[in-house]
Write a structure and sequence with these properties.
This protein is α+β, with helices and mostly antiparallel strands and about 1250 residues long. InterPro entries: ArgoL1, ArgoL2, Argonaute_Mid_dom, Argonaute_N, PAZ_dom, PAZ_dom_sf, Piwi, Piwi_ago-like.
Length: about 1250
């Protein structure tokens, strides 16, 4: 068989081969003669070797063992064998699958599909199952003249289609080049990747999910051959003898090939290209001088005049994917930068021996007001691309010159007596058998005081107390009352369309026709126009009835507040000091008004209950849309995005009770433990229910009874009876489940309870559910994830359905909304090279692999133990440990103790996992192997309960790291899973996995501490649990090691103990580096946009105080950056060539123009590769910058920090310091110990009255990355 003209052979990294010539068969099959012209640009040796003019050659990447086998005919296949890239055979044949195992050769024939697993990395901290080398490159149906040339692969695609010779794929997909359409092949890419979700933290990329598929050319013409002037031939691939790595033949050798890149490639056959050590071709001499005349993108190693690993100079072509390693990296990297502290007094301050300095609260530095900085300019680096974004232009051509703002007050009407205009009625009276006193008025509506229908209440009511101040009315009620006022008194508004925000602000496009600019409306009835008819007087002998009040009514007071000029928007475009917020708020309220009348409002989102998806546990998923007005670069925009949330399904309350108690039916529930009762009270907290035994308004739940219905005794007119007996006597209702507790729908105050049986309650419709568990989250992700194109179409459809074109309120305020997506400019920045001890790699698509790479600083584990808290055999455990020890050795983590001490739960029946861990720790202490270093816990599943118990024990009691392993992963013992575990263990034991080749702006030139801070608030429905504050800080020049400080605090957005936490972290930095930080970069997460100014003032002053707590004269410059993932900007590449294989925005894409405020220093950055659904960028806002960093430096630093995340081989979605702070806060929530409830006088569990004790992190872990 002959092979025509080199259909684009694969080579090692990009797929090379030539456009003409002799060898050109793809996979270096030396036993078969090729056909075609001479001088094909054969393989050669990557580092020189033979010149390979079409002969066999040795090929260190295709030959002896480096990347395949002897001759690439199967066996140790070039992309099969150890490389798990599919395992194909250039001669043809059967599939031959690889399942991403380490030693699976996949000899099969014909190219195989190259399957591979992906796995994931758990955000909770310890679960991982990523693949060791999941490249799945495969060959697909043979090579050369046969079909394929690329093969199906996780990143690559369905092989290459036609090339110049037969069907041999010359280019394939090539994940760095998108669809390589200039020379053969390049069908769709598919699969692979990881999943980086902040709220759950799973990463589905495994160990090496590169999966590139058909290795077509990096640009258009393969790996280095194929110049228009003959290609290959004389110098072919350009080995050592030709003084360069990337030239190769002809006049321009390798037109845009590997070594040249840029405009003309090597020009002189690589004379100054990548080269090794010959002449000026790189290495340690001059780094390639100019990287090959005009190519090489400043050579390989960066810099301007050489560089440590070659390179220097030039502009143009890209850099290669792999290069030399950095060796072992110990220390902080600042040893040769700056001077250590010599003054003994200052040393005492920075070692902590001098103690904490007292700081005067009146110090001027602590009173300073910090101004929000302006944008210093735009970023410059990277490739320019165009994006469509989910923003829609808003014109104000016909807007009124002024908008009039009114203040609205809503109050309850005074209680109507029996002789009110509704007459003596009794619709809301107590049951005559209960003999209750008339209730006091003016209570909180949430506590159901206006219409209190206490089914069981003690007749011996406590003495009357002074009236407490009224609490604010719920927002939903205020909105309904204002809408009712607009309907009832429509004529009073003179036909002017007014809008309101549902609370206290009302806006009008013209002055309302009132003489005094104020008006009071009485008897506003939000429940309907018809009063309850009067009731007949009680019969003789009956207990006296309290007269009905009729329907609840309110008083609405409206008065003029201010006049707002719409011209302030135009003034703001040229003058950033103009306050534009009043007009923006007015226009936003006007744009949202119609939607708020028609749909359910949750924050800035609108939902319709017409289309729902049922979830387990009495919940349902509902779709809607987000809408907000934004000011951008000299224009006004409306942001519209798809939204989804969970509501309680309007079903029996029992549907919520059963899952909260993990019960299948009500009959399975018996006496509740205190913990179960507390959990149930928390699950039902504030859910509104409607009693089913009589018509009544909805009521909120405040807790549950300590006793079941048949044991909760109350006194009714001197007679004691249970609640169950009362309902049978009064309503002839015999409870089916009298053994269940009751719900309190009265008040959380003792003595004011109002009990209802659970089985007589239905959940009121339209209630958002904030209590979401892991199963809910997984299902929500499955239901709501949309590919970019589908989400884009959904957003456009939502804009059409919103009816902005026919919205009378928009028209009244002169607004017109465009119907097409905005288009804006973006840039794609280059990723950094990730360095290991023995090799470096340029990530592709935000990911790289760990195969054959060793940690830059490997830890040593001498004394560790295993606790088996799952149904798994000891034989499986031993097999897993062998694989783990073997993988650790290959990765640079030394496990000296290959037979750790093991404790199995079967040995101690009934013992909890915490007890087993304590026993294991004591056994480790007794061994003669040094202090205990780690306990590995094998769990049955991923349940949060046991996980929190394990982490609380290891982090606060034992003081050593723990590593959780799920039993199914022990049984499978996949090498890739073991490799991911090694990543975490090495960091927990104070090792370093990798560092970046490129210097980090500012950080690499002077001692700089990078701080991440976050406050994690309890979710709605979690009661009065405290917030958790977390602050982490870097300890070296590489942003590789961090330490954390955590604390519990009352609910607050600012970090209350920040000065003390920061002081600890600054001293830890000094201890690690022997240097004082000269610069501070502060990434702050967990702040909403409306809090920016207040947080800046509070926490900049906290930073200043921390500096003074160390030393009087210490005051380094600070750059303060807000990190925000909770936004609704989504971008879609205008050109498919600029997207990844799933249509998502590629990592490194930054948007800092068009849709952002031209004055504010902010930008959107895509730091990761989207795996499921549509990628979400992170929004960064620089609030204060004393370091005077350029926009380019801030963006590049932030992007590159995403590649320092230590527990996976993927870049993450937002800056690593903020990510670490988030993880540390989530871990510290496990340190909360819930105390006993403050039970009420009638023995109830109040869901918001629990006490919590926060256990401090063990001192031995304070300088350890326990949270990783």
């Amino acid at each position: 068989m002959s092979y025509s003209g080199g259909g684009g052979g694969y080579g090692d990294q990009r797929g090379y081969g030539s456009r003409g010539g002799d060898h050109g068969r793809g996979y270096d099959d030396p036993n078969r003669p090729g056909s075609g012209g001479s001088g094909s640009g054969g393989y050669g040796d990557q580092r020189g070797g033979y010149d390979q003019r079409g002969q066999q050659g040795y090929d260190q990447r295709g030959g002896y063992d480096q990347r395949g086998g002897y001759d690439q005919r199967g066996g140790y296949d070039q992309r099969g064998g150890y490389d798990q890239r599919g395992g194909y055979d250039s001669r043809g044949g059967d599939y031959g699958r690889s399942s991403s195992g380490y030693d699976e050769y996949s000899r099969g024939g014909g190219g195989s599909y190259g399957s591979g697993s992906r796995g994931y990395e758990s955000g909770r901290g310890d679960y991982s199952s990523g693949g060791y080398d999941d490249r799945s490159r495969g060959g697909s149906y043979g090579s050369g003249g046969g079909y394929g040339g690329s093969g199906y692969d996780d990143r690559g695609g369905y092989g290459g289609s036609s090339s110049h010779a037969g069907y041999g794929g010359s280019s394939g997909y090539d994940s760095r080049g998108g669809y390589d359409q200039s020379r053969g092949g390049g069908n769709y890419g598919s699969g692979g990747g990881g999943y980086d979700d902040r709220s759950r933290g799973y990463s589905d990329g495994g160990y090496d999910d590169r999966s590139r598929g058909g290795y077509g050319g990096r640009d258009d013409r393969g790996y280095g051959g194929g110049a228009s002037a003959g290609g290959g031939g004389d110098r072919g691939y350009g080995g050592r003898d030709d003084r360069g790595y990337g030239g190769g033949g002809g006049d321009r050798g390798g037109d845009r090939g590997y070594g040249g890149g840029g405009d003309r490639g090597g020009d002189r056959g690589g004379d100054r290209g990548y080269g090794r050590r010959d002449d000026r071709g790189g290495g340690d001499r001059r780094g390639g001088d100019r990287g090959g005349d005009r190519g090489g993108d400043r050579g390989y190693g960066g810099g301007r005049g050489g560089g440590r690993f070659g390179g220097g100079g030039g502009r143009g072509g890209g850099r290669g994917e792999s290069g030399p390693g950095v060796g072992t990296v110990t220390g902080s990297g600042y040893e040769s930068i700056g001077d250590p502290v010599a003054d003994p007094r200052i040393q005492d301050e920075w070692t902590g021996r001098a103690g904490v300095r007292d700081v005067n609260a009146e110090d001027p530095d602590l009173q300073q007001e910090f101004l929000i900085c302006r944008r210093p300019g735009l970023g410059r680096g990277g490739k320019s691309v165009q994006m469509q974004v989910n923003y829609f232009g808003v014109s104000l051509d016909s807007a009124p010159p002024e908008i009039f703002k009114y203040h609205v007050d809503v109050e309850r009407s005074p209680d109507l007596a029996a002789d009110s205009k509704y007459g003596p009625s009794g619709a809301d009276q107590k049951d005559e058998t209960m003999g209750d006193e008339p209730k006091q008025e003016g209570k909180d509506e949430k506590e159901n005081k206006e219409d209190k229908d206490v089914e069981m209440s003690d007749v011996s009511a406590p003495p009357k107390r002074e009236r407490r101040p009224e609490r604010p009315l719920p927002r939903s009620l205020v909105r309904n009352v204002i809408n009712a006022a607009l309907r009832q008194y429509e004529a009073e508004f003179g036909g002017i369309r007014v809008v309101h925000d549902g609370m206290s602000a009302m806006y009008a496009p013209a002055v309302l026709p009132w003489d005094s600019h104020a008006k009071t409306f009485v008897d506003v009835n939000p429940d309907g126009p018809s009063p309850t008819p009067p009731q007949p007087p009680p019969a003789a002998g009956d207990a006296p009835r309290r007269p009905f009040r009729g329907p609840r009514t309110f008083v609405v007071k409206i008065k003029m507040a201010e006049t707002i000029s719409t011209n302030s928007l135009k003034d703001y475009y040229s003058n950033p000091d103009v306050n534009v917020m009043p007009v923006l708020q007015a226009l936003d309220v006007a744009a949202r008004h119609l939607g708020a009348q028609r749909l359910i409002t949750v924050g800035r989102n609108f939902f319709s209950m017409k289309k729902t998806f049922p979830l387990k546990g009495g919940k349902e998923l509902c779709w809607g849309y987000h809408q907000a007005i934004r000011v951008a670069d000299r224009k006004l925009l409306m942001n519209v995005d798809q939204a989804a949330t969970v509501f309680y399904a309007p079903k029996e309350l029992m549907e919520l009770v059963l899952p909260a108690l993990n019960a299948r039916s009500a009959n399975d529930i018996r006496a509740l433990s205190e913990r179960d009762a507390r959990n149930l009270a928390r699950a039902l907290r504030k859910i509104e229910v409607v009693p089913t035994h009589r018509k009544d308004r909805k009521r909120a739940i405040f807790g549950i009874s300590a006793q079941p219905a048949n044991q909760t005794i109350q006194s009714i007119k001197g007679e004691s009876m249970s609640v169950a007996d009362y309902f049978s006597k009064r309503y002839n209702i015999y409870l089916r489940y009298p053994h269940l507790p009751l719900v309190n729908v009265g008040s959380k105050r003792a003595g004011k309870e109002n009990w209802l049986p659970i089985e007589l309650c239905e959940v009121a419709p339209g209630q958002r559910c904030a209590n979401i568990n892991e199963l809910d989250t997984a299902e929500i992700i499955r239901q709501t994830s949309q590919p970019p194109r589908a989400r884009q179409e959904t957003i456009i459809d939502q804009v059409r359905q919103a009816g902005f074109e026919n919205d009378p309120y928009l028209a009244a305020f002169g607004m017109k909304v465009e119907q097409r997506l905005e288009v804006t400019e973006a840039r794609v920045m280059d990723p950094p090279d990730v360095q290991y001890a023995n090799v470096s790699e340029r990530p592709s698509g935000g990911q790289w692999n760990l195969r054959d790479k060793r940690f830059v600083e490997g830890a040593t584990m001498r004394n560790w133990g295993v606790v088996i808290s799952a149904n798994v055999g000891e034989r499986d455990v031993q097999g897993f440990i062998r694989n783990l020890v073997d993988m650790a050795g290959k990765s640079g983590l030394t496990i000296e103790d290959s037979n750790p001490h093991m404790i199995h739960m079967d040995q101690y029946r009934g013992a909890q996992v915490e007890e087993l861990m304590k026993m294991c720790f004591k056994e480790l202490e007794a061994r003669n192997r040094g202090p205990p270093q780690l306990i590995m816990v094998i769990k049955q599943d991923k349940s949060v309960g046991s996980y929190s118990d394990i982490k609380r024990m290891s982090d606060t009691v034992l003081g050593i790291p723990s590593q959780c392993i799920v039993s199914q992963n022990v049984r499978s013992a996949k090498p890739q899973y073991c490799a991911n575990v090694c990543l975490k263990i090495n960091m927990k034991l104070s090792g370093k996995n990798s560092i970046l080749r490129e210097p980090l702006p500012l950080v690499s030139t002077a001692p700089t501490i990078i701080i991440g801070a976050d406050v994690e608030h309890p979710r709605s429905g979690m009661g009065s649990r405290p917030s958790i504050a977390s602050v982490v800080a870097s300890l070296d020049r590489y942003s590789a090691k961090y330490v954390a400080r955590v604390a519990a605090q009352k609910a607050s957005s600012d970090i209350q103990l920040l000065p003390h936490m920061l002081r600890d972290l600054f001293l830890a930095f000094y201890q690690s580096t022997n240097r004082k930080p000269e610069h501070v970069i502060y990434y702050r997460d967990g702040v909403s946009e409306g809090q920016y100014f207040d947080i800046l003032q509070t926490e900049m002053r906290a930073l200043r105080k921390a500096f003074k707590m160390i030393s009087e004269n210490y005051n380094p410059p600070v750059t303060f950056i807000i990190v925000n993932k909770r936004h609704h900007m989504r971008a879609f590449p205008n050109n498919p060539r600029d997207a990844d294989r799933k249509g998502n925005v590629v990592p490194g894409t930054v948007i800092d123009t068009g849709i952002v405020d031209s004055h504010r220093f902010d930008f959107f950055l895509y730091g990761h590769s989207g795996i499921q659904g549509t990628s979400v960028p992170c929004h960064y806002t620089v609030l204060h910058d004393e370091n005077k960093m350029s926009a380019e430096d801030v963006q590049r630093l932030t992007y590159h920090l995403g590649y320092t995340f230590a527990r996976c081989t993927r870049s993450v979605s937002f800056a690593t310091p903020a990510y670490y702070a988030h993880l540390a806060a989530a871990r510290a929530r496990f340190f909360l110990n819930e105390g006993s409830d403050g039970a009420s006088t009638v023995g109830s569990f109040n869901s918001s009255s629990s006490n919590f004790d926060f256990t401090e992190l063990h001192n031995d872990l304070k300088n350890c990355m326990f949270f990783i």
